[in-house]
Write a structure and sequence with these properties.
heterodimer; A: mainly alpha; 2 strands; about 40% helix; extended; B: Rossmann fold; seven-stranded mixed beta sheet; about 35% helix; about 15% strand
Chain lengths: ~210, ~800
């Protein structure tokens, strides 16, 4: 027969178990299930390899040949199909045996259809971000914000937040919002952090970006 | 182990605790905030190629250069062009909100329409352009066939020198109707004063940029006066100068308007007494011999009579009694005006969109003459003609000639109103007594809303059998029409402005379409040409152009043929600085076609030179001099007597003064049908730069800039001095009824110490009964209860001192 005291201790222990189970379930949901539910994954329409085209490759393209500034200072961003067609102009002639190149020629070049790239770093419409002020005037390297894309052979999966419809790269791939590198996150605080560090605190005024 | 109530709570507590240790709640809070950006009803401009088009804003005759920014085909932003000589980068709030005029589909006519059911009931049927043009042209042809071409009339709000205005005028001319009615503005008052004192009918040319002392009689320089972009950039130029060279502005205004508050000195006379103040200043200039001796002695007529009148009647002590302005201040201003290097005196209340008092304009201009400020740098210039080609002579057949011999129905130009070109308020009077007009065309105007005593006009229009509106907007006047032939809006069409209001050098501005027309609208210029062709006969013969662009181009050819002027931009020296030295900066185009292309791209042609002085040549009066004593008034009054006495004649014209004063600038107390006992306060309409008060209605962007002590919900606030309000037991926000002899309006009170006691200040531009939910039913329209008594001599309505009574509601 259990004594009343034993009984009481057991009840207490059971209570702690239930508490612990609740805690663990919540932690699993919060850290593992939630991110899986929050983001949907999309593949880029084409796996463009920066490595195979870049300065170190046989093609030897410089970054600025595709990602350049227009005369008025606006930034070209991701190049249009016309840029690809400067080399891949003939739908029938292949440079490599890569299935991605076949896809480029078949799906886009042949039908003259723009490639619907998914932009990892697309900011909300309420944000005004001029590349020229950062890259030319501020002399910031591309990878400070975008990471080292130049050494990418495969494009990372594009994950979109089901609620906000923005790319995961804005919040950061770490669900806790923890960042190790400058390019891990692109939230307003990250803009402000850099402005402050670079003694450009006046650019933290709302109207500078939210016009 | 069982899941009892206690354990469940513990499990739940663990869950809550665990959740708080995950990013889930924090991330969700952030995401929910961002999610609001993507609600389907939050407007986000389409993505597309970013581009910009340089053109000219034609929403008012100010002709500001604008850059229209587009994403894809969508206009997203309008900015001022820094390379454009008129506005040098500055534009007004209305110009900035221009895309809402284009895209606000709730206010636009999208196709030709025919009124069905009772007119004014706002029931419409869409018709084809062919049917619309056939109907209107057949009606006009019918008038001609029955020998009644004068039964066609037009109300035209286009700038009087623009090709659009000339084209409508030409249509009436070719059809055979003298009844071309324009909307009056201060430019008309200015033109009349120029005619009487200088014998010229040139454009208003004020060299404000080069002036160092501006005596502004009520001109709301920062409230949208004249060409707002130009005036605002001029103000910026004035205040950017070194302190000792800074232009000093004296603002004469019954209220602490934005202009008054920013001016160097603010003087508040009773509304409508500005002429007396000007003459008080003239008194000091004459008495202390501060006038320009050489100019007065050699180039003026009637100075002796003028000085006698001002010395006798307008001593500062007397003027103080009339105006309420302290006598010492009057002398002080006169001496400062005389002591300035390049002073200028200007008139035109508020935005200058409505006519002023003719004698007052003459009194103000007399100050310029006293200091020899006519055609001098920084003064009032004699406008050089702009060398546009004339269109071929109008072909008038016998029907047209007979029609044109008929008297105008508004009485303008008759012995009673000898100097008026158009009197729209008489137009409404003559219509209301059985309409002599059968068909009325309305273009670029919403007179039912923008004219003083607008209720009268609204009533009168009901008697016109057939009204055709060319308005692109569902405004009050077009809702009363039988047929709508909708025009494009300003960003969808090419049109011109000839000499932006008040600019000091010849300037021709040409806008170009920025977007393809959104709806099935047609350029009114093309419509008029089509109508004329359909009317046929000699009317068609006077409209030989394929389209409006061809007509504009034909006129612009004169600019090339003159061999003068420039269309190129980008020089670092502003044009106003180049006038004296006449330095060219561009290469003359080799052919007219290359000039036309240049003109379309730059949007302007201008002549950056001016012959200053030339006093012996510029006056075209009968005496060949500047006339303080107008021989034209004398000739007209004496000439038209035909046995009647001068006294009766003056009484008929509403002129109280007798003797020499009649022919000279003098102060006339504005008459009123209301007694001061019954209507103890004065209602003074106030125009604001961020509240459109003309034909173009206030866009929603600008509604947002009104404070909630100006407009709250549907309530409009009038401003009153706390003392005056106190007398009536009114406090901030009190609801009142404003009653004049013409009717009543409901409003609320905002107490403002900058408002003159005894005067009620009411913003103009609201109180629409048409348009969409952003405008309809918001506030009230003061013009509905404006008395509109006639200004002596000019015959234009007086709108600035209607007597009212305030009743607590």
């Amino acid at each position: 027969m259990e004594t009343g005291q034993q009984q009481e201790r057991k009840t207490k222990r059971d209570g702690w178990i239930f508490f612990a189970v609740g805690l663990i379930v919540a932690l699993v949901v919060g850290w593992v299930v939630f991110p899986l539910l929050l983001y949907s994954e999309q593949r880029q329409p084409l796996n463009y390899s920066h490595v195979k085209h870049g300065p170190e490759s046989g093609v030897g393209l410089e970054c600025e040949e595709c990602h350049y500034f227009h005369e008025d200072g606006s930034f070209s961003g991701i190049p249009g199909l016309s840029k690809c067609k400067e080399c891949h102009e003939d739908p029938k002639s292949l440079y490599t045996d890569s299935p991605e190149e076949v896809k480029l020629l078949k799906a886009f070049v042949e039908s003259d259809r723009e490639i619907p790239w998914l932009v990892y770093s697309r900011q909300p419409d309420c944000v005004y971000f001029p590349h020229v002020a950062h890259v030319k005037m501020g002399e910031i390297e591309c990878k400070v914000c975008h990471g080292d894309f130049a050494s990418n052979d495969t494009l990372p999966a594009y994950k979109v937040n089901r609620l906000t419809k923005y790319s995961i790269d804005i919040w950061g791939r770490n669900i806790a919002g923890y960042k190790r590198n400058t390019w891990d996150r692109m939230k307003m605080d990250d803009c402000a952090e850099c402005h402050t560090r670079e003694a450009k605190e006046q650019n933290n005024a709302c109207f500078v970006c939210h016009k | 182990m069982e899941l009892d109530r206690r354990n469940f709570i513990k499990f739940f507590a663990g869950g809550v605790g665990g959740t708080l240790l995950t990013p889930l709640p924090w991330k969700l809070i952030d995401d929910i905030a961002i999610w609001t950006q993507n609600w389907s009803w939050v407007p986000i401009p389409a993505r597309g190629k970013i581009s910009q088009v340089d053109t000219v804003c034609t929403l008012c005759p100010g002709a500001c250069g604008i850059t229209v920014k587009k994403v894809g085909d969508r206009v997203v932003k309008i900015e001022g062009r820094e390379d454009f000589p008129v506005n040098r980068g500055v534009i007004c709030p209305l110009g900035m909100a221009g895309q809402q005029i284009l895209y606000n589909e709730g206010i636009r006519w999208k196709a030709p329409m025919k009124s069905v059911g009772e007119r004014g009931s706002n029931r419409w049927k869409e018709i084809s352009w062919e049917e619309a043009i056939d109907t209107v042209s057949a009606r006009i042809r019918g008038l001609r066939e029955s020998g009644n071409p004068a039964k066609l009339a037009a109300i035209d709000g286009n700038q009087s020198r623009s090709s659009m205005a000339l084209l409508i005028r030409r249509l009436l001319d070719a059809v055979g109707s003298p009844n071309y009615i324009t909307l009056p503005g201060h430019e008309d008052t200015y033109a009349m004063a120029q005619l009487l004192m200088q014998g010229s009918d040139g454009s208003m040319a004020l060299d404000l940029e080069n002036s160092d002392f501006v005596l502004s009689f009520g001109c709301g320089l920062l409230d949208g006066w004249g060409a707002p972009g130009r005036i605002l950039s001029t103000w910026a130029e004035w205040v950017s100068r070194a302190p000792q060279a800074r232009t000093f502005v004296v603002q004469i205004d019954p209220m602490a308007s934005d202009t008054a508050m920013k001016a160097g000195l603010w003087i508040a006379p009773f509304p409508g007494t500005e002429a007396a103040l000007a003459l008080g200043i003239a008194h000091v200039l004459v008495k202390e011999k501060l006038y320009h001796r050489e100019f007065i002695e050699n180039h003026t007529f009637g100075f002796r009579e003028f000085s006698k009148v001002v010395l006798e009647k307008y001593a500062p002590a007397d003027v103080e009694k009339i105006t309420g302005v302290e006598r010492g201040l009057i002398s002080q201003v006169a001496r400062r005006f005389a002591g300035a290097q390049a002073p200028i005196a200007i008139a035109g209340r508020g935005k200058g969109d409505l006519p002023g008092s003719l004698y007052e304009q003459m009194a103000v201009h007399a100050l310029n003459a006293l200091r020899g400020r006519i055609n001098k740098s920084g003064g009032v210039l004699a406008a050089d003609p702009i060398p546009l080609s004339e269109w071929p002579e109008v072909a008038r057949d016998s029907v047209a000639r007979e029609g044109l011999d008929k008297a105008r129905i508004d009485g303008a130009g008759t012995p009673r109103y000898p100097f008026a070109r158009s009197l729209i308020h008489h137009f409404s009077e003559s219509i209301s007594s059985g309409s002599p007009i059968d068909t009325l065309l309305v273009s670029s105007a919403n007179p039912i809303h923008t004219l003083p005593d607008s209720r009268g006009l609204a009533e009168a229009l009901k008697a016109v059998p057939f009204i055709v509106s060319l308005s692109p907007f569902m405004d009050e006047t077009s809702l009363m029409a039988d047929m709508i032939l909708p025009d494009h809006t300003h960003l969808e069409k090419m049109t011109d402005i000839v000499w932006p209001i008040g600019l000091q050098y010849p300037f021709y501005a040409l806008s170009r379409p920025v977007v393809r027309p959104l709806y099935s609208t047609r350029h009114s210029g093309d419509v008029i040409i089509e109508l004329a062709k359909k009317i046929g006969g000699s009317v068609a013969g006077s409209f030989q152009w394929e389209n409006f662009e061809e007509a504009i181009k034909q006129r612009a050819k004169g600019l090339f043929d003159s061999g003068m002027g420039e269309s190129s931009l980008g020089g670092s020296v502003p044009v106003w600085k180049r006038l004296e030295k006449a330095t060219g900066q561009g290469n003359a185009p080799s052919s007219f076609s290359s000039m036309w292309e240049e003109l379309k791209a730059s949007g302007c042609w201008y002549a950056p030179s001016h012959s200053f002085g030339q006093w012996a040549e510029i006056f075209r009066t009968p005496t060949g001099k500047f006339e303080f004593y107008s021989s034209s008034i004398n000739a007209v009054l004496q000439g038209g007597l035909e046995g009647g006495s001068l006294d009766d004649r003056l009484k008929e014209m509403g002129i109280v003064a007798r003797g020499d004063a009649v022919y000279m600038p003098h102060y006339e107390e504005a008459g009123s049908g209301a007694d001061k006992e019954g209507y103890p306060l004065v209602l003074f309409p106030v125009e604001l730069i961020n509240l459109a008060s003309g034909w173009i209605a206030n866009p929603p962007f600008l509604n947002k800039t009104l404070f909630d002590y100006q407009l709250k919900g549907g309530d409009l606030f009038v401003e009153m001095n706390p003392k005056t309000a106190g007398q009536y037991g009114l406090s901030e926000g009190s609801r009142i009824i404003l009653r004049s002899t013409r009717g009543e309006l409901r409003a609320r009170i905002h107490l403002f110490k900058g408002a003159m006691p005894g005067v009620v200040f009411i913003p103009v531009g609201l109180g629409h009964t048409a348009y969409d939910r952003y405008l309809k039913g918001k506030g009230v329209n003061p013009y509905e209860i404006i008395e509109g008594v006639e200004d002596p001599l000019s015959g234009q309505p007086v709108w600035w001192n209607t007597r009212v009574k305030v009743i607590k509601a």
